[in-house]
Amino acid sequence: MTALFIIMKNIILLIVALCAGSLSYGQKALLSLNEQNKYTYFVVKPAPAQPNAPALAAYLKKALNGVKFLEATNAGGVEGRGIVLVYKQGLITGQEEGQLAYKVSIDFKDNKYRLILTDFMFTPYQRNRYGVFAPVSNFGTPLEKLEAKVSTKQLNNYLDKAGSYSAKFGQQVSDFLTNPAAIMAHPAGVKKVDTKNW
Amino acid sequence: MKKKFLLAGALLFASAYFAQAQDTTKATPASADPGLTIFGSVDTYYKYDFAGRKNANIATSFGSEPNSVSIGMVDLGVKKKYNKALFVGEVSFGPRGQEQSLLPGKTGDSYHVQNLYVGYDVTDKFNVTAGYMGTFVGYEVISPVGNFNYSTSYLFTNGPFQNAGLKLTYAFTDKVSLMAGIFNDSWNVYESNRDVSTFGAQLMVAPVKGWTAYVNLLSGTFSGTEIDLTTAYQITDKFKLGLNAATFSAPNDGGGFSGAALYPQYAVSNAVTFGLRGEYFKNKTKSGATKYSNIIAGDDVKAFTLTANIKAGPLTVIPEVRLDNAKSDASFLKSSGAASKSAGQFLLAAVYAF
Question: What is the DSSP string of B75-87?
Fold first, then answer.
């Protein structure tokens, strides 16, 4: 009986240890390191034969908050940059903790597209004289170099935010390229129905 | 039976953990609002003037009570931005947040308001803000959270603290923006003395990464004219250099002041930063009784402040030593009561920001 109890205890402890490790796995698993050892969100998916890059850029600027600059390139792709705010839990309510700036590129080839979000730079926010939270400076720190400056919990939070935002970005790109006519004809969430045909 | 129950419980617990790991990482787009934001701070300090007893020679703002464990303020603010509209309301209680930074209005009350304003983003680049706001002029601010040093400079003490008015800001790019506005004729009070006749402007440039500079102008026939340069350059990860220079002319040839302060800071670790403030301040009034922080007409002072910021999360402990040296002996006193050209103080403060 005692031996059985010890075995069960060890199994439970092992499961708890695995769970604790998985807590930080989250969305940061969507990021990987590129050739320059920068955190990167990278997906390759099927694309239509003649994608409308300007329309895609215009759509993404409306559909996603934080996109600062996005335009079609001469090569037929899309390039740009943006920011995503990172929040922390203050004493009572949430507060802006900082911002993650990123660069984005979408390239098309052989009926495929390649989406890359990379060059994540973190800039901490601080309350300014007007009572709003604003960047401490325009001196950002690459996400890859933050480990020495912030706690593990903070870094994991930033990586999770970068991963989840990138995933949402990717979903918008995929939705548009899958059915651009439907996306552009109807605003998101509004369905058209023919009531005469029943 | 017991074995199966324990195993089932462990598996259920594990599933809950995996599910939570996915749910805590919700995407947060840039305009997503956490709702109403509440912020603030509390600060307390002990100051010892080297002249001893209850002498308080250095007459700059805050940290003014000598040989006493004293309080700064409880500062509480709320902020909400919904789409393009923003409001901020901030009140303060305590010496720093009341008589040391707020002047009473005509009814004799300041209502403890540090900031009370609304703003609207007309476009991505153009913003309109109106109300009672922390001044845009100068390097240092009222809130201890916004300053590296706990004691303040002469330039800060004698410049504006708040301005009530309407301002328009246009961001040409991320690196250049221009603000222009009209403000009440009186500084630091929420109502005008006569009218809304002070003109203010600010040019912001961020020429390179880590460097931001502001050129400020505040001019009115009632409160005078101040021109100010405020700039900070994060030269390396660890080293930052700030500069503030200003000149003020009081109305009706009533004198004025000028000065400059340099703020080098070096972070020796994530938790500890050392900084030095070196300031030169001159009362440029030619004659008469006009004093600025006890510096008499025609006199000048050099002030050196060595400060450390020791951070533990939201708490910052600030030990500081300051030495001021004036040209004449009219501003400071020795412990004997005799006039002195110099003064010094040690200060230890704690600031908790939330």
Answer: EEEEEEEETTEEE
DSSP annotation of B292 reads B
In angstroms, rounded to a whole number, what is the distance separating the alpha carbons of residues B111 and B132?
A: 12
Q: What is the ipTM of this complex?
A: 0.86
Residue-wise pLDDT tens digits, A146-193: 998 888 989 999 999 999 999 999 999 999 988 776 666 655 556 678
Backbone angles phi, psi at B9, to 5 degrees: -60, -40
Report the number of distinct structural domains present in chain A: 1
> DSSP class of residue B296?
P
CB atoms within 10 A of CB B178: 14
Helix H segments across A24-90?
A: 53-63
- What is the gyration radius of the CA atoms in chain A, in angstroms? 22
* Tens digits of residue pLDDT in B193-252: 999 999 999 999 999 999 999 999 999 999 999 999 999 999 998 999 999 999 999 999
Which amino acid belongs to residue B309?
Answer: N
Supply B31's token pair.
Answer: 């305009």
Q: For position A50, which CATH number holds?
A: 3.30.530.80
CB-closest option in B22, B237, B354 to A91 = B354
Closest-CA distance, B53 to chain A, in angstroms, reads: 34
- In this complex, the residue of A8, A28, A94 whose CB is nearest that of residue B35 is A94
In the predicted model, is pLDDT for residue B81 greater than 80? yes
Residue A191 vs residue A75, higher pLDDT: A75
Residues in chain A: 198
- For residue A195, being part of any structural domain is answered with no
A11: chain B residues, CB-CB within 8 Å = 7, 10
| E strand segments, A51-111 | 67-72, 78-89, 94-109
Which residues from chain B sit within 8 angstroms of residue A93, using beta carbons? 34-38
Residues of chain A contacting residue B234, judged by C-beta atoms under 8 Å apart: 137, 139
Cα B141 from Cα B244, distance rounded (Å):
12
Residues of A with Cβ-Cβ distance to B18 under 8 angstroms: 19, 22
Domain boundary assignment for chain B: 40-353
B18 touches chain A (CB under 8 A): yes
Which of residues 274 through 293 in chain B touch A, CB cutoff 8 A?
A: none
**CB-CB: which of A15, A131, A167 is closest to B88?**
A131
Candidates A129, A147, A165: best to mutate against B (most CBs of B within 10 A) is: A129
Best CATH choice for the domain B40-353 from the list 1.10.260.40, 2.40.160.10, 3.40.50.300, 3.40.50.920: 2.40.160.10
Interhelix angle B2-23/A2-23, nearest 10 degrees:
10
Q: List residues bridging with B167 in a β-sheet.
A: B129, B181
What dihedral do alpha carbons B3, B8, B10, B11 form, nearest 10°? 140
Helix extents (H) in chain B:
2-23, 154-158
What is the domain extent for residue A148? 28-181
Between CA B322 and CA A145 the distance in angstroms is 36
For B83, nearest residue in chain A (alpha carbons): A65
